[in-house]
Amino acid sequence: MKALIVGCGRVGAGLADRLARAGHDVTILDTSTRAFERLPADFAGKAIRGNGIDEDVLRRAGLAGADLFAALTEGDNRNVLMAQLARETFAVPRVVAKVNDPVRAEAYAALGLATLCRTTILEDAILEYLGEPVDGVRGVQPPTGHDHPLEARPAPAPPAVATGTRPEPAAPPGEA
Q1: Per residue of the chain (176 residues), what is the pLDDT tens digit?
Q2: Would you call 126 exposed, middle or buried from its count of C-beta atoms within 10 A (0-12, 13-18, 19+)?
Q3: Is 172 exposed, middle or buried (0-12, 13-18, 19+ CB in 10 A)?
Q4: Which of 22, 129, 3 has its CA nearest to residue 67?
Q5: pTM, full prediction
Q6: Could you give the domains of the chain?
Q7: Is the backbone of residue 62 left (phi > 0), alpha (psi -120 to 50) or beta?
Q8: Cα–Cα distance for residue pair 31/6, rounded to 1 Å
């Protein structure tokens, strides 16, 4: 599997290391060189300094042909933007965006993006620890909304136009 992860925080670094140790082709991207200090010295993947919201940076990092893209920065908006680029521009089959706000996570899932909300995950873990029932989505919330944009869809029908008639010209400004 070819994976690109943006955000070399604790989660991104840990995920990148675990995937690389499992033999996957992993690239991790971050704007801060110091962030890569979180990776172990024997990290078998590639670490690239760059901004994941830049389409050219994603292309140079090898997003084309990736099997997995994970947007794991601290910015919800950045993560959603990068996830949309990965899914819609680069046609990555498995894309997930970390979204800290549970309301936004649900809204983006309804719009067709897989999201991961640590707030909800932590709430569920604590409730489970207390023996309380946990309902709802746990872990990655799959897209619940519209069809995946890469699926074939029929083109919309053109608007009906009466034959033998000419459209009326628009009235000049100020006249009705």
Answers
A1: 999 999 999 999 999 999 999 999 999 999 999 999 999 999 999 999 999 999 999 999 999 999 999 999 999 999 999 999 999 999 999 999 999 998 898 888 888 889 999 888 888 888 889 998 887 656 777 887 654 444 433 444 444 444 444 434 444 445 54
A2: exposed
A3: exposed
A4: 3
A5: 0.78
A6: 2-141 (3.40.50.720)
A7: left
A8: 9
